[in-house]
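Internal ticket - ligand job 177, zinc ion:
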Amino acid sequence: MIIDKQTRPCIIPPLSRRIFLKHTTDQTIHTASQRLRRAGYRVTQQRLAVYAFLDGNRSHPTVEDIHAGVKEDFPRMSIATVYKSVESLVDVGLVKPIHLGHAATRFDATTEDHAHFRCITCNEITDVPMGEVPAPGNGLDRHEIIGSSVEFYGFCTRCRRHKLGLAPEEPQAQKLG
Ligand SMILES: [Zn+2]
Ligand SMILES: [Zn+2]
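stdout (structure tokens):
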């Protein structure tokens, strides 16, 4: 009988190496686990998978993008779980939210100060190095500032060329992890 294999209790494999080692080191996962644990969060495979997906990911994905990204390794993970995982990662400072008015919030695991360039046509967000964080002027003395964001916006290369009726550039070799 081969039923044996199917009736085994479902045990989550240790640090589901397939997803984590694509682009994330053990050390990164270890540090993330510690931060979560210290803040009182349960360190679950799902939470770590969400972090592993965001770590080194430059596309500034939405919760839906993250959900689609971790589905292969966690087919039963709900979007609500992704949402809660991201919330905990934001809470412990591993991930930064990028609020875009009415559009869905995007997430960024690059937490060092940097600016963004957002294409107003396709909504692509690109990281831009930033030398100095701009200091606020007068008038905020009774407010509590918890962060800042600098956004440049306009047309990305692709959309700009499209707008001008130019042929698309040769696709560049992309690093996908
Ligand atoms: Zn664009
Ligand atoms: Zn960014």
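Auto-summary: The radius of gyration is 20 Å. Residues 140 and 146 are 12 Å apart (CA to CA).
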